[in-house]
Amino acid sequence: MNTEVVDDAPVVLSARRISKSFSGVQVLFSVDFELRQGEIHALMGENGAGKSTLVKILSGFEQPTSGEILLDGKSVKLPPNGAAEALGIVIIHQEFNLAEHLTVTESLFLGREVTRFGVLDRKFMRAETRRVLDLLGSHVDENAVIGSLSIAEKQMVEIAKAISRDARVVFMDEPTAVLSREETNFLFRLVRKLRDKGTSFVFVSHKLDEVMELTDRVTVLRDGQWIKTAPTSVLDGEAIAQLMVGRELSSLYPAKSEPDVDEEVVLRVASVSTGYVRDASFEVRRGEILGFSGMIGSGRTELMEAIVGLRSRLAGEVLVRGQPVPSGDVHAINKAGLAYMTKDRKAKGLLLNTGMMANLTLQSLGRHSRIGYLDPGSEEAALVKARRRFDIRVRDDKIVAGRMSGGNQQKLLLAKVMETDPGIIIIDEPTRGIDVGTKQQIYHFISALARDGRSIIVVSSEMPEIIGLCSRVVVMREGHIAGILEGDEISEQEIMRYAAGLKRKTAA
Amino acid sequence: MSVNQEGSQEAIRRRNWRDIDLRAVAPFVALALLLLVGALVNPNFISINNLANVATRSAFIAIIAVGATFVISSGDLDLSVGAMVAFIASLMILFMNSGVIADPVLMLLAAILFTVVAGALCGLTNGLITTAGKIEPFIATLGTMGIYRGLTTWLSQGGAITLKEPQLQEIYRPAYFGTIFGVPVPIIVILSVTAVAAFILYRTRYGRHVVAVGSNRDVARYSGIFVNRVRTVAFVIQGLCVAAAVLLYVPRLGSTSATTGILWELQAITAVVVGGTALKGGAGRVWGTICGAFILELVGNIMLLSNFISEYLIGAIQGAIIIIAMLVQRSLVRKS
């Protein structure tokens, strides 16, 4: 890597002693950041470390509470709502900002359409779009409708949009999360090509290997503080991980306890099929923590939703303690002692405008009512108990769920599901978007529930979590169960082999 | 940590009076202001007699609006209530005129039962079209509004339907004009309907489910709530409230026509919104709704007593009130 050249390059954009608070909670503490011309700079940190806030501040979407931003060495106040694009600062969002019904050309020129005598000059705009796409080496048709493009192609359009606006600084937030390996390689080639022409990139990612492969320098944030900035070449993955977490990782997971081989099978899923999932079969024993791994879109959530009745099954049987449960009836399945905790706590798990109590008891109002009449005292008692049991900490007892931190929301959601006293709990992405301290707590809750004789299915895209928690792991790929791993087989490499389709074995 | 928590507990106590939900209080403040304005405009306004009169006249809208509170809290909308009043009232009068039961008291009781069943069925129809038919409630009830209104016009052949039996009229009259311990019956009906509704909405499982469904259907579904059942039942409650309003309406005039209850849906929705229920669902305020209905009637009354504004503008003023109420609601949301 040509670090020497980069070292001398002038600084394009920098942040000095930036602090930021949201409604009294400080999320950034006097952070410094420097982006040189023609470098790819990785911004790393755990969830909640303040990466996205820093990106938003450096692109004008948020204003800092204190501190200053310098563009070409001059202090500036970035205009809000994406108007910083005019200064050459472009952000490519994780969720694309593209209108599905527009064509590629229309998207590229949205908001700055070229006109001749007051009439759109469509010929010129099409030609210009083609030129930019060719420059990127992309075969996307400039007349295609956005909705018809693949995710990788949409990302290409976003990049083309950035380039057509003469971007000097491009922020990319987890750009590879939705890309295949080849698409990622293509993206990296493109980013390097643009870097060599002088464009600067800020690359926000959790994927250490990609950061090592692509970037020139790394800045690590932890708990809203700047920790270190260093050339990527002097660091290795282990070192970056240590900087991000700031402590030994080993204590994160509780000791595993495997259930006895002769423990009762409490859940038996036999040849379940849905629209996408085909012929899935597996068993869970009492007190077991079973992991579900696989790529995003491998059908894990769809299978779980079919098991708990949120979707109907096209074929197959689900038996809870030997008793078959009906298809598509959440209520009955819940009563049978099987509960599902969604991965989407904001859209599907909690009523964000409602307080803790109504959220906690929503799924289990039957326990707090006589002939339909609610007993507020009993609900209150449940809340007190749940807050102690799951360590839910809030500053104001009347707070609505939407204002709680992600970690507390997750604990409240777990408490809500546990209120139904299920024997089998399916937890989809147990620690998505929460800080490492809360993660550790949740792992211990899960482990305690298993020791209590409950069975838990953990669906997770975070491989360390699956490996750290589960005694058996089911790997899914393209709607099928690709393999079920046990004991020493459970390793990152082995799981990857099944998830990527390199290896396959039928359910034992 | 513990020191911190104690400190914050104190802060909570101090903040408590400021934490009162402005949206819940706003309609009552507006009502108080209106009473003040009214008293300044005309000293007769504030008399018990006049106020009791206003409250009595607000009964139809108030009772219908209580039902609308359920529908709106669950995230739906019912535009058909005005037409439904006309339709059910016509059916009730036709039933009483049919003379199938000779004894007038029994006849009246049968007619009341008939009306309640008719109301529930009309509501059920709206509910099923919306949920089982998966049609936007706005469109579904726009359709049934046309249907109920059209059927009324057809039943009355464009004219009026009048209660013929004088004996029946005589027994039934006190249901609107009578008093109990000096309190007009309609006011007692408003209060009891509201009390029952408030109990259902705030203190039962079903009420909690209504608000959850209105707040976020996915969360409700993932919590094992039968979303469509909850929504349908809300429409049935709306139908029952319309029936209750009809039971007060028929003894008042003893007659209906194709124009009965015109624009009542606007007034009912206005009352709900003025009362602080969010139009996009997720929060229901039954007592606020009653307050809203009372405000609407008071505005009309003040206009009548004041002589500065033509009373023919009442419809326009009510239209303006709903817009103002929405603006106020939104600005309060922003502040909180």
What does this structure look like?
The complex is a heterodimer of chains A (508) and B (336). Chain A is an alpha/beta fold and 508 residues long. Chain A has 17 helices and 24 strands. Chain A has 2 domains: 3-247, P-loop containing nucleotide triphosphate hydrolases (Rossmann fold); 265-500, 3-Layer(aba) Sandwich (Rossmann fold), CATH 3.40.50. In chain A, strand 7 (115-116) and strand 8 form a beta hairpin. With 336 residues, chain B is an all-alpha fold. Chain B has one domain: ABC transporter involved in vitamin B12 uptake, BtuC (Orthogonal Bundle), CATH 1.10.3470. Helices cover 75% and strands 3% of the residues of chain B. In chain B, strands 1-4 form a two-stranded antiparallel ribbon. Chain B has a two-stranded antiparallel ribbon with strand order 2-3. In chain B, helix 4 (59-73) packs across helix 11 (205-215) and helix 5 (81-98) runs parallel beside helix 7. The longest helix of chain B is centred in the middle third of the chain and has 28 residues, at 104-131. Chain A binds chain B through residues 310, 330-331, 334, 340, 342, 347-354, 358, 361-363, 365-366, 369, 372-374, 376, 395-398, 416, and chain B through 8, 12, 15, 19, 203-206, 208-209, 211-212, 215-216, 218-226, 282-283. Chain B: InterPro entries: ABC_transp_permease. Chain B: GO terms for molecular function: transmembrane transporter activity. Chain B: It is found in: Cell membrane.
Task: Fill in the keyword field for this structure.
heterodimer; A: 508 residues; alpha/beta; Rossmann fold; six-stranded mixed β-sheet; 17 helices; 24 strands; globular; disordered N terminus; B: 336 residues; mainly alpha; ABC transporter involved in vitamin B12 uptake, BtuC; two-stranded antiparallel ribbon; 75% helix; 3% strand; ABC_transp_permease (chain B); membrane (chain B)
